[in-house]
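Task 17 of the worksheet. Students: predict the tertiary structure of the chain below and write it out as structure tokens. Keep your answer in the requested format; marks are given for formatting as well as content.
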Amino acid sequence: MEQSGAAGGQLARRILVVDDEVTIAESVAVRLRAEGFTVDLAHDGPGAVAAASALSPDLVVLDVMLPGFDGLEVCRRIQAERAVPVLMLTARTDETDQLVGLGVGADDYLTKPFSLRVLTARVHALLRRVDRAADRDGDTIIVGDLRIDVDQRRVWRADIEAQLTPLEFDLLTRLARRPRVVLARERLLEEVWDWADAAGTRAVDSHVKALRRKLGADLIRTVHGVGYALETR
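Model answer:
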């Protein structure tokens, strides 16, 4: 495990960068350190899981292709232990691989080669989303047999609790605040992910699938060519 310190004396957000290509990992670390983050590095699957457990990072930048076991398995394991935003990096251009990454709990992805400027923007966007969620006043949303404790970030359906990733929770909450109202994919992408990119609508689709898998296929209705609406019983 390697660590790069943050500039300045104030407490910085901690980011874990995981990539077996040392040059790429160090380049990302240098750029993020320049932005004021504390950066830790790992270069294989087991090391990444151990680092995430020991350091409790605020965000993980995670490559898919890793020795030991791959980034998808790393994402599954760290999300099972503690919900944390994950930005996944992939050299694969196959859309299926990207959707699988989102399906195991990643919040966003970038395809290699990528711009360090774009990566940094995505990191800031993910952290802003986390901050917005933390700053909201706590309340409880009840829609039919769905109950959402916003303050504790816990969700139940028919009194059975579901374990959601941070982004799944935020997406569900956004839909639940306006039940039966169809929200466009682009709007959800901008409001939940904090960035607007038409290509990213696939990320919305993937997280809706994850919510259906965890909470029931009947909970969210697809309006083809438009977006999604939360149904009520």
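Marker's comment: The two ends are 50 Å apart (CA to CA). Confidence is low (pLDDT under 50) at residues 6-10.
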